[in-house]
Amino acid sequence: MWEILKRQWVLHIKDNPVAYLLIIFVFITGIMTGTFTVISLSSQQKLNVSNFLQEFFNSQQGVSINRWAIFRESLWQHFVTAFFIWFFGLFIWGSPFILTTIGIRGFSFGFTIGFMIENYRIGGFLFSLVCILPQSIVYVPCYISMGIISMLFSLKKDHGHNKIGKYTAKIAIVFIVLLIGVLIETFASPFLFPLFIWIFR
Question: How many domains, the chain?
Fold first, then answer.
């Protein structure tokens, strides 16, 4: 089964190399832009963000974790992003908006990781590695996959109801996989936050 899926995926890449390269390029560009934005922040802006993080993590000490609130917020944010990717894929003019959405996701990832490492050095690197990277390993390929599916569909001339249904099903399947990342973000990462309180003091 795995070999069949792997073979089909390889063939899909060979048939649509431009879409793959474009989506991945835009995502990487978003990451780099987010990272460079961190570098270009003024000392005062970095201090403001650092103070916010310090107050947030200090306020969480001794407070029980509301897993449902974390899950609901994370699920909603990812649902909205996935919805817009799906929606723009319904129209031939949607390609630039799909790329923009993917780029924004890349920017968010790059800015978060970049700020943690730039401002907290080894502590920020370890925090990113342990508390951000695990769910990101799921999020990144899922958003790239949704972007490619949506991009290819938006460029098709025939958008019959049957094809829209298949397109929606593909996006839904990827979103279900993305939920693994939401579960990690909800039930695993918050328990590891106390290990890194020292970097925000």
Answer: 1
The H or E element spanning position 110 is helix 95-127
Name the 3-class secondary structure at 16. Answer: coil
Tens digit of pLDDT at every position of the chain (201 positions): 566 656 776 777 787 888 899 999 999 999 999 999 988 888 888 878 787 777 766 665 655 667 788 888 999 999 999 999 999 999 989 999 999 999 999 999 999 999 888 888 888 888 889 888 999 999 999 999 999 999 999 988 777 778 899 999 999 999 999 999 999 988 888 777 777 777 766
Question: Measured between alpha carbons, how far is 99 from 117 in angstroms, rounded to an integer?
Answer: 27
What residues make up the domain containing 179?
A: 43-55+89-201
User: Which string of DSSP letters, residue by residue, matches 159-198?
Assistant: --HHHHHHHHHHHHHHHHHHHHHHHHHHHTHHHHGGGGGG
Using CA atoms, how far apart are residues 124 and 132, in angstroms rounded to an integer? 10
The burial class, CB within 10 Å (0-12 / 13-18 / 19+), for 176 is: exposed
pTM: 0.87
Q: Are 148 and 108 in contact (CB under 8 A)?
A: no
